[in-house]
Design goal:
Length: 212
């Protein structure tokens, strides 16, 4: 479709396409077709895969399989799913970065971030209803269905370390527990999460949250 195409005709095609396709094709396909009609760029699906990684992993849709699921054979990975405009995400970001540094010498645990506004999280089989969302993919997991969400109020480094000690390894929790309770990581014994305790924060979510 050229720039000379009358605007009313473009609008007609958009409306017709919506009527014809809504409920028939997947939303991603519908959006792509609409983009062709009105000359819009396609919706983002993934940021470029980083050529190098820092201690805090930069996880995108196209390297999620390699950095998270495939890596479950040798380690657990905590992923902070966030949005840049989210105020609570900005509060949690330095905590997640500090956690990554705390585990710098621990090969069996990794920490990363995932910008959910620039990467299609639905392609991964994950549904988000608030930001930030902290998911732990335990060592030994084989699918995203085995992820564990942090739901114990506003996270702190010590709180996350204690929580991960209970959930980070599906086959041998004591292996992770030994790492997370060493004096080199925390100055006091990491707390143990009481499985019977009511989650803190509204709705049991991680402290404050931005609903989607």
């Amino acid at each position: 479709m050229t720039d000379e195409t009358p605007l009313f005709f473009k609008i007609f095609l958009v409306v017709f396409t919506l009527i014809a396709l809504v409920g028939v094709l997947p939303s991603s396909v519908t959006l792509a077709l609409l983009g062709l009609v009105v000359n819009l760029p396609p919706p983002p699906t993934s940021e470029p895969i980083p050529t190098t990684q820092q201690q805090l992993l930069h996880i995108v849709r196209d390297n999620f399989q390699a950095e998270v699921l495939d890596a479950c054979a040798r380690r657990a990975t905590l992923v902070d799913f966030y949005a840049p405009w989210c105020g609570y995400c900005k509060q949690v970001a330095p905590i997640v970065a500090e956690l990554a540094n705390a585990y710098a010498a621990v090969d069996s645990i990794a920490v990363g971030t995932f910008d959910a506004t620039k990467n299609n999280v639905n392609d991964l089989g994950i549904a988000l209803d608030h930001y930030p969302t902290l998911f732990l993919f335990p060592q030994g997991c084989t699918s995203v269905a085995q992820r564990v969400e942090f739901t114990y109020g506003m996270p702190t480094v010590k709180k996350l370390i204690g929580w991960m000690a209970d959930y980070a390894n599906l086959s041998d929790p004591s292996a992770i527990r030994r790492f997370t309770r060493t004096p080199s990581l925390v100055d006091t014994k990491a707390p143990t999460v009481d499985a019977n305790a009511a989650p803190a924060g509204e709705g049991g979510r991680a402290g404050g949250k931005e609903e989607l």
